[in-house]
Specification:
The protein has four helices and eight strands, in the order H-E-E-E-E-H-H-E-E-E-E-H. The protein is of the alpha+beta class and about 220 residues long. The N and C termini lie close together (about 10 Å). About 25% of the residues lie in helices and about 20% in strands. The radius of gyration is 20 Å and the shape is globular.
Length: about 220
Amino acid sequence: MKKKQMKQQILAAMSAGLISLGMVGSAGATLIGRLPVTPGGTDYQAYYDPSANLTWLADANAGAGSVFDNGFSPADGAMTWGNATDWVAGLSVGGIGGWRLANTDTSCSTTYNCTGSEMGNLFYNTLGNTAQPGPSEKTGPFSNARSAVFYWTATEYALNHGRVWYFNMHFGSQGLIYKSASGRAWAVHSGNVISVPEPSTVWLFGSGLIGLIGLARRQR
């Protein structure tokens, strides 16, 4: 009985440790919080997707209200493709640059379920959404993921550079549209923007587990 209770305590400690490290379970995969506004806090500015090795900005419409926003409302985040690429190129979050728009898998033969595209993988595999006609529109820990609009991607149409691929977060579809249209920009970063957790967090997590293991040995 004591062994069972100790096992439960260790599992609980591990779960608490994972939460402190910013791991957020979603319908499809686990996202890891990155770039907290407050050191050691959980107000994350980005989330890392280990399965795709990509870090997504937590605010899916962070360009809203910027000088690049040219929508009907000054804060709706709608901008041309040119403005979107300029905005993301100059973006710095937590002192980290190198952000970009998502890439698209143009070899996908259909407009839906294109999981080879970065936003398609996020929509279907990571967030666990389904395609038309009735998407559940799960957004996970992300804010302002506008379901009724499309998001720009970085991939231009090979046969006509006046057009570019987009992704629709409502239907889970991708397609082509002219660069002069108004879409939203969601910044993504290749790889893990923070390769290891903060030393203080690791120390607290590790010391807690060591203490539980020592207690288990003494009880034996």
